Design the sequence.
């Protein structure tokens, strides 16, 4: 993973607004991120946890 501290969607930081919605920009390669948004892991992380 290249990015372990920020989320792929929105600003990637914990914030008090609508984080990820249809109008929000996302990162170009979600597979390089640990988090999808400020608190939720990406599908790749869930898969690694489930298969461990």
Sequence:
């Amino acid at each position: 993973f290249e990015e372990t501290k920020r989320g792929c969607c929105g600003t990637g930081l914990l914030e008090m607004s609508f984080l990820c919605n249809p109008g929000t920009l996302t990162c170009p390669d979600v597979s390089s991120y640990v988090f999808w948004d400020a608190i939720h892991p990406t599908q790749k992380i869930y898969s690694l946890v489930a298969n461990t």
